């Protein structure tokens, strides 16, 4: 009897141990591995997106947003037994959601900027195992148009083009679309004078098309029609932002304004200057000895800016590979909060994420007028990002407005080729201060250089 009692006690104790664990496991649900289809709802309009979950718990899982050939990877964090969060890497936002009883997800895209907390949240749901985006397989309509090629686009709704600079209003109004269509499937990118939309993915149904994008910043939806004469009428909305209308025609010769001519210095100026705090609170200026006689890249950015992020994907590894050649770089950040503590938080994460090995400084609130005033010597800053290339004498040799990412193909390749050619040229020039530092007078042509 004692043996039986002992056995029963042992079984009861084991069951008591297992039941809470089983209950905890059931409560701590996690999305199934594989492909998912999500759908944001903005003013009653669905914006679909796709992602893939790898891993079975928050400790080792990855969450990848898919847009055509582009994949952006994020980590998953557990907020509570029934709530998970996917921080949007360097953007101050997160997907926060629960796994429902039927395995679907329900949550919201949550804006985490302190001054806007709760003001721009976008609800979404998601279903596992659905790789399609706009139209479920078997329900497609034959494509009645082929959008493949280059399109000259123009915004027809001027509500958003509020800027005191008429040139900027004109530049932002004109756009170029690069589209590839295979059957019903449509991918591409829309370029403006100040950047690109990142890769868009969607579908063509008859003479109508839909495109969407979501890779961390606010989701974007573009839709429109093509008439019998080949004219395009469309609407574009970026989730939390206002909707704008555009029109266009296919045009192989369509081009944007020259990005090297959009931002410029004041008359008679050859230099820019600033004094801003870095992440440790130390004041950084281009007059510091660190930059004397160096070629310097000044990148005006914001962590909220997708094109700034894409430009940093290029610049951060480029700098690590080339810093030994006598080049320096500074990222000047204008952020969504005019707070040094906020700057330290978001740029600290930004620096770590990209392994940035150049200086990062805080310029102030994200406003082009503010940036223009604080970057001494600049006549007008047209966009974030903007790149200033400064030679060994401290003079600005080139200014590039915006950024065209890899999805733009030849536009990106041309940018990289010109960037490298100019840096090679400037780095090959003599340091005007080298002989003076060695105790010998510099060449006469350089003697006046400060």
From TrEMBL:
Region: Disordered, residue numbers: 157-176
Record's compositionally biased regions (Basic and acidic residues): 159-170
A Pfam match: AhpC-TSA
InterPro entries: AhpC/TSA, Thioredoxin-like_sf, Thioredoxin_domain, Thioredoxin_ResA/DsbE_sf
GO molecular function, one term: antioxidant activity
Protein name per its UniProtKB record: Peroxiredoxin
Lineage: Bacteria, Pseudomonadati, Pseudomonadota, Gammaproteobacteria, Lysobacterales
Signal peptide: 1-23
Keywords noted in UniProt: Signal
Species in which this protein is naturally found: Pseudoxanthomonas taiwanensis J19
Annotated ranges, domain Thioredoxin: 265-421
């Amino acid at each position: 009897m004692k043996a039986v009692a002992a056995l029963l006690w042992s079984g009861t104790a084991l069951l008591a141990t297992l039941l809470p664990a089983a209950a905890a496991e059931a409560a701590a649900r996690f999305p199934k591995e594989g492909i998912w289809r999500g759908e944001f709802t903005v003013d009653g309009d669905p914006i679909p997106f796709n992602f893939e979950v790898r891993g079975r718990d928050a400790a080792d899982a990855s969450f990848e947003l898919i847009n055509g050939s582009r994949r952006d990877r994020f980590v998953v964090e557990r907020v509570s037994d029934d709530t998970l969060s996917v921080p949007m890497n360097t953007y101050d936002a997160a997907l926060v959601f629960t796994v429902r009883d039927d395995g679907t997800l329900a949550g919201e895209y949550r804006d985490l900027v302190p001054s806007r907390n709760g003001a721009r949240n976008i609800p979404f749901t998601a279903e596992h195992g659905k790789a399609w985006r706009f139209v479920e397989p078997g329900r497609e309509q034959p494509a009645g148009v082929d959008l493949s090629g280059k399109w000259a686009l123009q915004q027809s709704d001027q509500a958003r083009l509020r800027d005191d600079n008429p040139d900027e209003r004109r530049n932002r109004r004109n756009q170029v679309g690069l589209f590839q269509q295979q059957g019903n499937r449509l991918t591409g990118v829309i370029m403006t004078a100040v950047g690109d939309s990142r890769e868009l993915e969607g579908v063509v149904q008859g003479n109508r098309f839909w495109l969407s994008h979501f890779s961390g910043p606010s989701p974007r939806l573009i839709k429109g029609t093509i008439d019998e004469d080949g004219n395009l009428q469309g609407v574009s909305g970026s989730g939390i932002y206002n909707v704008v209308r555009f029109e266009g025609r296919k045009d192989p010769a369509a081009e944007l304004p020259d990005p090297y001519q959009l931002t410029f210095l004041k008359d008679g100026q050859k230099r820019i200057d600033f004094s801003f705090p870095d992440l440790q609170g130390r004041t950084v200026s281009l007059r510091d000895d660190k930059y004397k006689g160096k070629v310097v890249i000044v990148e005006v950015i914001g962590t909220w800016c997708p094109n700034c992020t894409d430009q940093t994907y290029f610049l951060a590894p480029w700098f690590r590979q080339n810093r030994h050649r006598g080049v320096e770089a500074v990222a000047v950040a204008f952020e969504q909060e005019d707070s040094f503590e906020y700057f330290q938080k978001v740029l600290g994460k930004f620096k770590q994420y990209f392994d940035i090995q150049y200086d990062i400084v805080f310029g102030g609130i994200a406003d082009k007028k503010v940036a223009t005033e604080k970057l001494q010597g600049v006549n007008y800053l047209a966009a974030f990002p903007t790149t200033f290339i400064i030679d060994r004498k401290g003079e600005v040799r080139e200014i590039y407005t915006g950024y065209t990412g890899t999805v733009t193909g030849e536009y990106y390749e041309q940018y990289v080729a010109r960037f490298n050619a100019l840096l090679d040229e400037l780095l090959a020039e003599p340091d005007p201060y080298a002989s003076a530092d060695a105790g010998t007078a510099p060449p006469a042509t350089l003697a006046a250089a400060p």
